[in-house]
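hi! just following up on the protien thing from before. the input was this:
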Amino acid sequence: MTSGNNSLPVEVQKLIIAFSTLPGIGPKTAQRLSYFVLSQNKEETLKLSEALIEVKENLSFCKTCCFITSDKNSESCSYCYEKDSAQICVVENVIDAITIEMSGIHKGSFHVLHGAISPINGIGPEKLKIEELMKRINRGETKEIILATNPTLEGEATGMYLNKIISENYNNIKLTKLARGLASGTDLEYSDFNTLSNAFQNRTSIDETN
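and the predicted 3d structure came back as:
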């Protein structure tokens, strides 16, 4: 076998490329995952492919909170109805919402932005689920918005943008952000329970930090 991936069967090359598109997966890891799939029996591989197909066919994102839902035809998911809409925790992605939910430190509802403002990557506010958040606020049920974007440059920029548009248009809503216990540059999903809990419990009013 000659060096380079061009000597591999085209099916393996396509699989490596597919794995490489996943976040956090480099070329070497993509190759290892591909060879692992090749080493599995057909039944195990089919289970993986069926699980992927079912996720895409049966699940979507709620039109209200933008969290994962199987209620594809409903305006709001069952998760929206179960949670207190008076307090909305705004996060960048579904994993952050799941992390906070599993910790049990937040009893209100969530709103998933599906990203963060990043001009260098061509992501502006219009590409996030901000319009959906404004629609929820317009219902008049919301009393507090917790800005729980990640403590990264993109997360901070997103938080500042949301603070500006919400404070300018809704002066009756309390705006808070997580305390400084979170390490700068670290995503919420990698925070331990104590750190995340302290950040929530000691969250501060954004007006007080300006």
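The chain has two domains: 7-58, 61-209.
Residues 7-58 form a domain with the Helicase, Ruva Protein; domain 3 fold (CATH 1.10.8.420).
cheers
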